[in-house]
Amino acid sequence: MTNAFMVSGLTKNYKDFALDHVSFTVPRGSIVGLIGENGAGKSTTINAALGLIQKEDGVVSILGREELDGDVKEQIGVVFDGSNYPEILSPKKLNQVMKNIYRTWDEQTYFNLLRRFSLPAHKQIKQFSRGMKMKLAISVAFSHHSRLLILDEATSGLDPVVRDDILDMLLDFVQDKEHSILVSSHITSDLEKIADDIVFIHEGKVVFEKPKEELTERYGIIKCGGAQFDALDQSEAIAYRKTGHEWQVLVSDREKMQKKYPNALVLPATIDEIMLLYVKGEQ
């Protein structure tokens, strides 16, 4: 098994939205970041892959299996954006529930994580803040010896210190090359820190699936005035847009562009900037 997670041609149609033959992989031992603006199809992709909504076409393989049976579910840790568990329960009572769901449930790991995140074991979940609920869901995902984590906006609502702690946990999780993570997030700076690959979904379609280092180390943005923009070879531009009196041009090889246009300002591109130019720029 080289891929822990694979979707091929995943399709789901709604009245005002379509997930259009989405395909990408999460190689074993890697962290893949799923990005896109709100409504782009990130959560729909995850829900369809997990069988929570009915897909209309496509193939899904999780941990080498196309059927999501009990054995596979045991090995997946899932964290959704929002409340994950019955809010009348306390974390201590949730522990009893999880012991009956997962044969591999690790009670000691669970309570250690509750203490690490300063979560009160006897307080009802409905009294938790949004950030506390996310920390609880992450604690559960780490407590049944998952081989694959699927996280949908799992770091949203968390302060920067706790977010950084969780990102370190995710990096540690994949160190043995047997564990894998798919993480959907609009906080692209988190993905710049931990992701191996980035999958960008826009309007229900995959725009690109690329190594993160290619995006952060090679891509660039040329910032120039109108005369310089007119002198550029348009075929070398991925996307471009005008903001005020300045043109911004996204290119895939900034070093090459700097040599070709020595008088131009060619800057490294963040994942946020790349996504913005793809969405709002002309191509």
Summarize the structure.
This protein has 283 residues and is of the alpha/beta class. It is built from eleven helices and 13 strands. It folds into two domains: 3-212, 3-Layer(aba) Sandwich (Rossmann fold), CATH 3.40.50.300; 219-280, no CATH class.
What structural class results from the helix and strand content? alpha/beta
Strand residue content: 25-35%
Count of DSSP-assigned helices: 11
- Strand line-up across the major sheet: 5-6-7-3-8-9
For the termini, the CA-CA separation is 37 Å
Shape: elongated
The major beta sheet can be summarized as: 6 strands, mixed
Total strand segments: 13
Gyration radius over CA: 21 Å
How would you sum up this structure, described in words?
This protein has 283 residues and is α/β, with parallel strands linked by helices. The chain has 2 domains: 3-212, Rossmann fold (3-Layer(aba) Sandwich), CATH 3.40.50.300; 219-280, no CATH class. Helix content is 34%, strand content 28%. A 6-stranded mixed sheet has the order 5-6-7-3-8-9, sandwiched between helices. Strands 11-12-10-13 form a 4-stranded antiparallel sheet, sandwiched between helices. β1 and β2 (18-27) form a beta hairpin. α3 (91-101) packs antiparallel against α4 (107-116) and α4 (107-116) packs antiparallel against α5. The longest helix is centred in the middle third of the chain and has 14 residues, at 160-173.
